[in-house]
Every structure is written in C-alpha cells, then in structure tokens.
Amino acid sequence: MIEPHTSTPTLGVARADGSHPPAPPRTAAGPARADLPVRPGTGRFLVLTGVFTCAACGLVYELELVAIASYLTGDSVTETSVVLSVMVFAMGVGSLAAKRLRRHAAAGFGAVEALLALVGGCSAMALYAVFAWGGAWAGGPRLFLVAFSLAIGLLIGAEVPLLMELIQRVRRQEAGGAVADLFAADYVGALVGGLAFPFLLLPLSGQLTGALLTGSVNAVAGAALVLGLFRRDVGRRVRWTLLVVNTVVLALLASAAALADDFERAARHAVYGGDVRVALRTDVQEVVLTGGPHRPLELFLDGRLRVSERDGRRYHEALVRPAMAGPHARVLVLGGGDGLALREVLEHPGVRRADVVEPDAGVVRLARTDPRLSALNGHAYRDPRVRVVTQDAFQWLRGARTAYDVVVADLPDPGITAGTKLYSQEFYGLVRGVLADGGRLVVHAGPVVPRPRVFWTVEATVRAAGLRTRPYRVDGRDPGSAAGAGRAPRDWGFVLASGTAPRLGLDPRAPRPRHLTPASLRADARAAERLRLPGLAASTLVHPRYTG
After folding, report:
1. Are residues 211 and 269 in the same domain?
2. 281 and 153, same structural domain?
3. Are residues 47 and 124 in the same domain?
C-alpha cells in the first residue's frame, strides 16, 4: 500500500531552539508516527522485544495460577479449565475495552503493565494466604482464583490493541504484516515463559518468589518501553506519574520477595500448626512432616494429610493384612513411600522379597532418615529383602516381568485428578499381568460413606480388568488429628481382588493385628455391601469417571 506524500516535517528533527515539533494529529489513514529517539527499525525491534517479554510474563502468570490452585485443591483438570477459560474470555473483554485507550496508547500501555505486574506478581501469594488463613471459608481459594484469572486476563487482553497501535506509530505497514509480526513475538515469548516456569523459576525461586520476580520483569519492561522509547509521546506529568507508579510497584514486589520466606513459614504454621519438622519441595510434590513432643507425627503431601501416627496403624493394617492371608513370598507395594504399608508386609513370615515403587525419592529418603518417621515404619527400609524403585507406578508396570503373590496399591485418593490413571481399567490390567496364579491385589479406594460413587467406581473398574473383588471398609481417621481435623474421612474403603473369588481373612502365622479380627473384617465387608451402587461404568484413561 503506497502512502500519499504529505508535507509534514520529519519527526524527531529538532528545531533551531532545540525543541521538537508536535506530533501530527491522528488521521483516518492511521495512527500518527511517534517522535522516537532512535531509528524506526530500532524502535520496531524494541517494541517487538517488549511484546516478547510481556507475553512470557503473561504465560508465567497463567501457569502459576494453575500450579498453585492445583496444589491447594488437588484437582488439576478443573483448575486448569477454570484458569484457561476465564482468562481467555477476559482477554477478549480486555481487548475491546482497550480500544478506548488507543489515542493514548503509550500512557495506557504503561498503566496496564504496572497494574499487571502488581496483580500477577502478587497472585500466588494472595491465593496461598486465602488458603492458609481462610480455609474455613468454603470456596474461598476458587473464588479468588477466578478473580485473579479475570483480572490478569483483562490486562493481558488490553496489551494487544495498545501494542498494535504503538508498533504502527513506529513505522506504518500493512495491517496483516503488523499482526503477523506482533503475534510472532507474542508466541515466541509465550514459549519461553512456558519453558522457564517449570525448568527455571520453580526449581530456583519457588512459586511465590517466582511470581514476584516475573512481576518485576513485567514492570521494568513496560516502563522501559514507554519512558524510554515513547517518552516524547507522553506529557511530562504522565511520565512522572508512570515513573512513580512503577517505582512503587517494584518496591512492593521487592518487599514481598524479601518477606516471602517469613510469609511462607507463617502460612505453613496456619495450615499445619507450629511444630513442622520438615518442609521441602521435591521434584514431585510438597512434603511437610509435623509432630512435636505432645503431638502425633503427621505427613502431608501437597497439603493433604497422608499419614497420621494417631491412626496410621489402623489404616495400614486394614490395607495390608487381608491381602497377606495366603501365599506372600513376593510382595509389590505401589506408592507407600512412607514405609508404613511395608512395615505391615514385613511382619508376615515367609516374605522373601518386597519391592516398593514410589515416584518421589524425597519421601523415601525422609522415611529412612527422619528418626520419628523411621521409628513409625519400623525401620522397614533397612530390611535386606526390600528393593526401592523410584518411578511412576503406571510406567513401571508396563515393563515389569516379575510375578508377585501380593500387590498393595497404597496410592492417593482416586478423587485427586492427577492420580486417576492409577485407578483406571488399564492400570488394573497391568497389575493383573504381574499377579502370580492365585495372587491378590488390594486397593485403597477412598472413603465409602461420603463418596460412595467414587468407591464403587473403583470396584467396578477392578472387575472390568478381569479380577473378582471383595470390598470392605473400616472406620476412618480420628477427628482429633490436629491438622487433619475437619478434613478427616469418616471411613476408609478397600477392594481386595484376585483372579478367583478372594477370601477375606487374616494370616494366622503373623503377629495379631491391633485393630482387626476375622469377625470385624466380615462385618466391615457387610457394611460396605449395604452401600453398593450397582451399574457403574469402569474408569479408563480416556474416560475417567472419578470426581473429587
């Protein structure tokens, strides 16, 4: 497209008195050219660099919201859907709203970036604060998740029309070419941000500091573009206002980063109590071990109570002992890195080999080295019969060649979305492939009374894999558990399965369990059968049927 020649003086050329001529008014032909301190080619490169940086920061905010929301609620699919859908919708609304700012594109972009840096940078800390101190408020974290997704999406959406306006002010070009350049820089920035989040920010800075650092980069990039490249496009008062606002934003983000460790300790105290023994972030999850002189030991994985000294033996006896009533020379424990299920296995005479497949080496290391946890699991990992494999159970089973007499699936609740593949028909088909003739599988299938559909879906899925089942339940976690109070299940549900009809009993040669008898097991099985939900379909990898 050929532009008509005009007699407008060249922009950026100083008058004799050293001042610059005013920018020509915007016309129907397009935006006026900006009075740049650099050549148009350099200016265009700087704008596209700003697009790249802002896109990288925007994607980090998005991934940060998904990551921390999944940690707080345990439902990664739902939280990802909420964040993505709300944010994309808000981006469209933000783009429409930003049309009103196009006449003041430079000042508007500077204001948008300063606000985005503050909101996006503080989002992770704010969500964690709501989770820690507002836990009793049902739905609080998710409401704030929606609010932050909406706010960040609005601001990210407003960037696009403003940046389009700025790049056209640098050098007029055909609209399709400008859009292609803008989106290319945007998508490459999103790629870099998406890779930097899991491989750089999370391992080096963590979720809270990583978000604050991203906000600082966002603020600096926006301020540099406006106050550096387009400083002659905005008035003196606007320049000073943007300078002060961005200085305040950077000061707030820096202060929050300096206090992040203290904030995290205070939030952890609010969630877990004051006697946290160990708190670490492994490659798989956050691991917190609590327990003091007058408080039972408790192990939390990603914020969920996994083991309690108060009632851990009752749970693990109910999980392991019925499956060991038969041949048990070779035993496989899937999950159970804390070692408590392994303790129950090793108490049975005749066990010659016990393999543990646990994805988190950090949990196994803690179970070996922490004095109280190691004492609780009976120092099971010192036993020479034990072998540990640090690998995802599903992937490990695909290459397993050993036949086992007993398989103990001590895995997280099936209602946790990230673990639904470990409760799928395909998974149980793989387990069936490693069972010896007459071998038995026992599955922790979640609570029966509050979530009967989930429990009976597990049972239907095991049956769909070609195994015969015997479901049973036992009374659940002691509500006196300090950090688990209010979240404790009313009961625990289990499914015993085999190629033939499994018998529900106990091994008479093993030490007598503290909480189980053959009579109580039969009563537990009858109690579970009274709650049966018939006609449920099996859960598969491509059609998971569990709900949290």
Report:
1. no
2. no
3. yes
Range of the domain at 281: 265-301
CATH number where 91 lies: 1.20.1250.20
Question: Looking at residue 186, what is its pLDDT?
Answer: 96
CA dihedral 3, 8, 12, 13 (to 10 degrees): 130
Residues 498 and 459 occupy one common structural domain:
yes
Residues 412 and 317 in one domain: yes
User: Which range among 11-25, 36-50, 275-289, 413-427 has the greatest average pLDDT?
Assistant: 36-50
Residues 127, 143, single domain; the answer is: yes
| Helices then strands, each counted (H, E), the chain | 16, 11
Chain length of the chain = 548
Give CA–CA dist 252/273, Å, rounded: 28
Q: Which residue's entry shows tokens 């996006």?
A: 120
Average per-residue pLDDT in the chain? 89
Q: Is pLDDT at 183 greater than 60 in this prediction?
A: yes
Lowest mean pLDDT among 26-35, 245-254, 354-363, 459-468: 26-35
**Dihedral of alpha carbons 22, 24, 30, 36, sign:** negative
Q: Which pLDDT value is given to residue 296?
A: 92
Query: Could you give the 3-state DSSP secondary structure of residue 480?
Result: coil
Q: Which residue has the higher pLDDT, 75 or 274?
A: 274
The answer to whether position 166 is within a domain reads: yes
410 is catalytic: yes
Question: How many domains does one find in the chain?
Answer: 3
Among 301, 329, 356, the domain boundary falls at 301
**pLDDT above 90 for 137:** no
- Residue 536 domain-assigned (yes or no): no
Q: Per the domain annotation, does 539 fall within a domain?
A: no
CA-atom Rg of the chain in angstroms: 30
What is the distance between the alpha carbons of residues 329 and 299, in angstroms, rounded to a whole number? Answer: 30
Contact in structure between 332 and 404 (CB atoms under 8 Å): yes
Which pLDDT does position 139 carry in this prediction? Answer: 61
Q: Does residue 278 lie in a domain region?
A: yes
3-state secondary structure of 440: strand
Among residues 302, 370, 410, 491, the one annotated as catalytic is 410
Q: Given a cut of 80, is residue 396 above it in pLDDT? A: yes
My answer on whether 126 and 221 are in the same domain is yes
- Give the annotated binding-site residues for spermidine: 316, 338
Listed residue (49, 52, 46) closest to 188, CA to CA: 52
Helix (H, G, I), strand (E, B) or coil at 548: coil
Lowest mean pLDDT among 158-162, 173-177, 188-192, 367-371: 173-177
The contacts of residue 166 (CB under 8 Å, 6+ apart) are: 34, 47, 105, 106, 109, 225, 230
